[in-house]
């Protein structure tokens, strides 16, 4: 080397870069332990030269602590299949960078430009997406820079040669190297000329270059005599030429005659070992940068979502619920999903206003901390309505839109029975609603219909099995249960489970003895001890008792049974309590549908229905994403009755909400009716099943309801309210306060702070509010807040939201009311005395016999789900206030083995409501011109 030109070793610089990236990856892992930078390398076919490059990239990724996956597709891959693969990787949060290895070795035509543009700009670490290319062209370096040009720039900078003011010549105009290289030099303030193989007097042009970048693909085209003395020469070419001295007969050279350039240039890159290693290093750098951006978003999301609330246009007087709802245009649910951290593959859109949320989000966020957990309950309900759902919606609107906290509401899906009956919808009210309210109250995404179908499939199989066992011999029954297919019999997996429960350790259908055949084939269901009923999601009093099997085809095998409303089905309770698909499957399998003639429980799994029910319910286990009037997220899921089942939204909805909201966020979920029913079951059944620890209780009350508990006049639907409820009456209010105080006491028994929310009405007075607040705080409530969310939305609940935040900041001292090892009777007594204020309980002989049977059969350690009127702390719906030391009569008891609880019945509890004389049906109609639903609320 005459002038001592320096060799620019890309290998050495790339090694330095990898060492730096290794530290950066370690820092990412320190900040977000669950985040591993991931690179997906997509290859079509199996060209060996491509395989060499891919192995280099994977090795480099592993060296710095990244995860790299080689997604190899066959040569038969079509363009659409490749696009689908790219789309899947775009949506996969495990990958922060995606490259498609070129050239594509496909048997079918594929547009390479279309493929590179299909890679998300946020994951396009090759920098080949048109959006990223366009950014470079306009001087915007915020996207990913193309790897080879970026590597060349890094090498040029290492020479110490000033780029600004230099004259640079780029030989080659490809979109991968030449064109973006010229842009990077231009925006670094060099004067740039782009030349190519057809440029005239190329040697004279090159002679002027202070910086020369050659990427033309012609072996040793640029000669030493063409190069300006002292120039920086970057050779991007890599070409194979014959060389008989090499074992392979080939050697690699660049586009520059290297030996001739050395005496002239100040710096020159070798081939190989120059630009090549830098290209891989820049690919790694881009992928790490992508992961760093994700890490920053995750860290920032711990504090607050990038959620844009919808503004409310408050008017006075407050219009009807439907007018308010229709005046607000909901945001696209796909936008809302993105705002709260869901990725497209976790969301199934049902139009633009509602979407199913996949349980896959729980796996993705399994290591994230949970949000604070708040349950909303009420005092003992009255016909005046306390506005529990309205308060819940107003609270989350305030938490999210006013307090700028991540907050998700979790609500039950309303049944169509009450919607078309007398209660109406359950979407909230005033300026604290879930929208669209019509969707919320009618069908939604079909979960209740799925429960109905699964329930009735089980009922149909139950009665069919009774019929077939009554009309066939053991052998005929067995041969039909295990039919010969192509001359061979085989047990289904569900039948193998039954054999195992029977203690028969055989898998060959031909090996069973006659006794084993009889035991396997015959369930011997006692028709007089069938506990499973059919269901419909309507109020239909005439289905409360029916006789089935009257057709001559059923051979006089009749029996009395009934229908219940769909939301009272045990399957609905299971949907709300299941923690995932496998848990739901196990619970469905364990459902006791009848008892045999020896008193042994017969399960859904014995009937072979478990798998089929799972198929019907596979989508129903996913909660539905909706929004409030202020555009804050709501998860709607499950709808078990609170006076029959446990009356809470689902565990999976709460779990998803708590992961999405994060450790500084809030999930506000509901418990049906008062603290004596919904809240008690929320704690002792739902929290026991989920393992979640609640942070606060919001107890909703109204001045009007307390006046009724104080002895106020009876309220009749449709009749004007009496003056006692419309004007100040402190004496009547004070007499009703014991009901509120009992519910506060109930909450405090679980070690959870209780925030009383006084749902304000226009007829309340300041003195009445002050009386309630003073009494609540004296009884131990953490705070008592007057909330005006109905008239003002989140703004009206801002003070309530602050009280909830403050309450959740207290360390949780949560404890359950009873231990599962207690006897069934003792657990009933504990609930009756502690939650209701009862003095004693009374069990009739039928109930005592059932308790003995449940205990003998291994169900004695299940929690208790009391079925009691919601309208009183006692079993008498007319008893208002807070009676004490009364006798609670348990007149029946039933088992929900799949849901995982025992249900004592206090008084007459109907599972099938009836329609009143004038149901809401009269008012509901469809406007055939506008397509709008009218009269729903």
Topology of this protein?
Elements: E1 6-7, H1 10-31, E2 38-44, H2 48-63, E3 67-73, H3 79-91, E4 97-100, H4 112-118, H5 130-137, H6 147-158, E5 167-171, H7 178-187, E6 191-195, H8 202-206, E7 211-214, E8 232-235, E9 239-242, E10 250-253, H9 258-261, E11 267-268, H10 275-301, H11 321-327, H12 333-339, E12 347-350, E13 354-357, H13 360-364, E14 372-378, H14 388-402, E15 407-411, H15 416-420, E16 428-429, E17 432-435, H16 437-441, H17 447-471, H18 474-481, E18 484-485, E19 488-489, H19 493-501, H20 514-521, E20 525-530, E21 534-536, E22 546-548, E23 559-561, E24 563-565, H21 570-577, H22 581-590, E25 592-596, E26 601-603, H23 610-617, E27 624-628, E28 633-636, H24 651-661, E29 666-674, H25 675-690, E30 696-701, H26 703-709, H27 723-726, H28 730-748, E31 754-759, H29 766-778, E32 783-787, H30 789-792, H31 798-808, H32 824-836, E33 840-843, H33 845-856, E34 887-890, E35 892-896, E36 901-905, E37 925-926, E38 933-934
Helix pairs in contact: 1-10, 2-10, 6-7, 6-10, 14-31, 17-23, 18-20, 22-23, 25-28, 26-28, 28-29
């Amino acid at each position: 080397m005459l002038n001592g030109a320096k060799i620019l070793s890309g290998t050495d610089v790339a090694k330095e870069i990898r060492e730096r990236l290794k530290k950066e990856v370690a820092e990412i892992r320190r900040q977000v332990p669950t985040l591993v930078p991931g690179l997906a390398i997509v290859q079509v076919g199996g060209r060996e030269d491509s395989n060499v490059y891919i192995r280099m990239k994977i090795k480099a990724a592993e060296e710095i602590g990244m995860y790299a996956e080689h997604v190899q597709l066959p040569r038969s891959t079509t363009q659409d299949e490749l696009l689908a693969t790219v789309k899947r990787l775009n949506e996969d949060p495990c990958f922060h960078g995606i490259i498609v290895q070129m050239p594509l070795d496909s048997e079918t035509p594929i547009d390479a430009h279309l493929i590179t543009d299909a890679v998300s700009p946020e994951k396009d670490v090759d920098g080949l997406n048109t959006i990223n290319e366009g950014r470079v062209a306009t001087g915007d370096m915020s996207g990913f820079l193309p790897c080879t040009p970026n590597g060349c720039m890094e090498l040029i900078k290492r020479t110490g040669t000033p780029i600004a003011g230099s004259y640079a010549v780029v030989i080659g105009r490809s979109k991968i190297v030449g064109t973006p290289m010229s842009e990077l030099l231009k925006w670094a303030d060099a004067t740039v000329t782009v030349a190519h193989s057809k440029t005239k007097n190329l040697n004279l042009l090159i002679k002027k270059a202070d910086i020369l970048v050659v990427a033309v693909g012609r072996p040793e085209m640029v000669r030493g005599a063409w190069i300006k003395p002292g120039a920086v020469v970057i050779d991007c070419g890599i070409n194979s030429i014959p060389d008989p001295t090499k074992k392979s007969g080939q050697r690699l050279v660049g586009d520059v005659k290297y030996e001739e350039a050395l005496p002239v240039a100040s710096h020159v890159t070798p081939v190989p070992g120059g630009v090549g290693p830098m290209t891989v290093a820049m690919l790694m750098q881009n992928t790490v940068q992508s992961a760093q951006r994700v890490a920053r978003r995750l860290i920032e999301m711990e504090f607050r979502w990038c959620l844009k609330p919808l503004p409310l246009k408050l008017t006075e007087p407050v219009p009807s619920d439907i007018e308010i709802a229709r005046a607000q245009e909901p945001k696209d649910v796909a936008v809302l999903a993105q705002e709260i951290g869901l990725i497209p593959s976790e969301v199934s859109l049902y139009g633009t206003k509602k979407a199913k949320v996949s349980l896959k989000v729980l796996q993705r966020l399994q290591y994230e901390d949970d949000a604070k957990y708040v349950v909303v309950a009420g005092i003992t309900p009255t016909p005046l309505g306390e506005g529990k759902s309205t308060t819940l919606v107003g609270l989350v609107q305030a938490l999210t839109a006013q307090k700028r906290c991540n907050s998700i509401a979790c609500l039950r899906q309303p049944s169509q029975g009450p919607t078309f009956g007398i209660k109406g919808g359950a979407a909230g009210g005033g300026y604290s609603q879930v929208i669209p309210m019509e969707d919320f109250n009618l069908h939604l995404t079909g979960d209740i219909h799925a429960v109905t179908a699964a329930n009735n499939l089980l009922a149909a199989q139950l009665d069919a099995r009774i019929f077939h066992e009554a009309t066939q011999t053991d052998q005929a029954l067995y041969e039909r249960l295990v039919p010969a297919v192509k001359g061979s019999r085989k047990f289904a997996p569900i039948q193998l489970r039954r054999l195992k429960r029977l203690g028969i350790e055989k898998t060959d259908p031909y090996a069973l003895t006659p006794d084993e055949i009889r035991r396997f084939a015959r369930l011997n269901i006692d028709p007089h001890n069938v506990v499973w009923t059919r269901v419909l999601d309507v109020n239909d009093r005439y289905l409360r008792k029916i006789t089935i099997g009257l057709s001559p085809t059923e051979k006089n095998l009749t029996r009395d049974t009934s229908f219940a409303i769909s939301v009272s089905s045990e399957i609905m309770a299971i949907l709300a309590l299941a923690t995932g698909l496998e848990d739901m499957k196990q619970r469905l399998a364990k459902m006791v549908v009848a008892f045999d003639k020896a008193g042994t429980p017969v399960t859904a799994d014995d009937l072979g229905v478990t798998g089929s029910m799972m198929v019907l319910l596979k989508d129903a286990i996913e909660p539905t994403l909706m929004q409030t009037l202020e555009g804050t997220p709501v998860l709607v899921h499950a709808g078990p009755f609170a006076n029959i089942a446990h009356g809470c939204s689902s565990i999976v909805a709460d779990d998803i909400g708590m992961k999405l909201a994060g450790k500084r966020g809030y999930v506000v979920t509901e418990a049906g009716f008062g603290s004596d029913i919904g809240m008690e079951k929320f704690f002792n059944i739902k929290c026991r099943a989920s393992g979640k620890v609640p942070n606060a209780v919001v107890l909703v009350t109204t001045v009007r309801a307390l006046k009724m508990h104080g002895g106020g006049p009876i309220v009749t639907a449709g009749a004007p309210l009496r003056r006692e409820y419309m004007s100040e009456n402190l004496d009547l209010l004070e007499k009703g306060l014991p009901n509120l105080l009992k519910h506060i006491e109930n909450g405090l028994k679980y070690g959870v702070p209780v925030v009383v929310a006084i749902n304000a009405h226009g007829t309340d007075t300041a003195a009445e509010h002050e009386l309630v607040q003073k009494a609540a705080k004296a009884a131990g409530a953490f705070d008592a807040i007057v909330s005006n969310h109905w008239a003002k939305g989140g703004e009206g609940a801002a003070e309530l939201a602050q009280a909830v935040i403050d309450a959740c900041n207290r360390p949780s001292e949560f404890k359950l009311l009873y231990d599962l090892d207690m006897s069934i009777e003792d657990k009933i007594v504990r609930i009756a005395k502690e939650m209701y204020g009862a003095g004693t309980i009374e069990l009739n002989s039928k109930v005592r016999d059932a308790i003995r049977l449940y205990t003998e059969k291994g169900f004695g350690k299940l929690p208790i789900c009391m079925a009691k009127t919601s309208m009183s702390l006692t079993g008498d719906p007319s008893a208002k206030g807070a009676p004490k030391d009364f006798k609670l009569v348990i007149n029946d008891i039933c088992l929900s083995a799949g849901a995982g609880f025992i249900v004592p019945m206090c008084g007459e509890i109907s599972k099938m409501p009836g329609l009143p004389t004038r149901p809401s049906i009269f008012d509901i109609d469809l406007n055939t011109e506008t397509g709008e639903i009218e009269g729903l609320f």
